[in-house]
Amino acid sequence: MSGSLPPDSYFTLSSTTEAEAKIKRSRFIALSGPAENEEAAKEFLGNVRKKYHDARHVCHGWKFGLPGNVIEKGNDDGEPSGTGGEPILNSIRRSSLTDVVVAVVRYYGGIKLGTGGLGRAYGGTADQVLAIAHRREVLLGKEFSLQFPYAQQKNLQHLLENFRGRTLQEDYGAEVTWRLWLPHSTSSNFLKELTEVSAGKLIPTLLSVGPRET
Hints:
By secondary structure, this protein is α+β, with helices and mostly antiparallel strands. The protein folds into two domains: 9-137, 2-Layer Sandwich (Ribosomal Protein S5, domain 2), CATH 3.30.230.30; 141-213, 2-Layer Sandwich (Alpha-Beta Plaits), CATH 3.30.70. It is built from five helices and twelve strands. A hairpin with a 2-residue loop joins strand 2 and strand 3 (26-34). Helix 2 (85-95) runs parallel beside helix 3.
């Protein structure tokens, strides 16, 4: 990626996942899930607090957005400062995920862990749940419609692959019509190459720019 181009894709979660650890009698339950914004994250956390209403602490972290426009927040929920929210946030950062929220519920077991022990417990349980969570990729390139004669299909398929594109839909009538996707980072060069190899006869129509689920 160069200049101010956005990334070609990003990874988030497809569903809620839960993991549990017991550390010196304290019980830590981590839950992770997708959240596109603060409202969705707060709804997720509200559901967690209802389910574990008798827990002593529910620390959390969330992250939204793409590089250059990332929003992050962590909360210690009564634990010593920096021992809950920040370790969870660090776990999210290491995962390279975005649009995600992680909550870690703690049931105190009667043995103090100390600030270092708490940080490792919250961060480690967050690592554990994100390691098993189901991911999904969201594509961020451009979609085009392209119509061409059958005789050019093989060459165009090769060209599309060279620029890491893919066909989303193929229709076969008098000519072939493709709905195709290209990453932001290669779309301009693909269009230039297409113009050259077709002597300007093939001109794609831009359909959309933005996210698309894989």
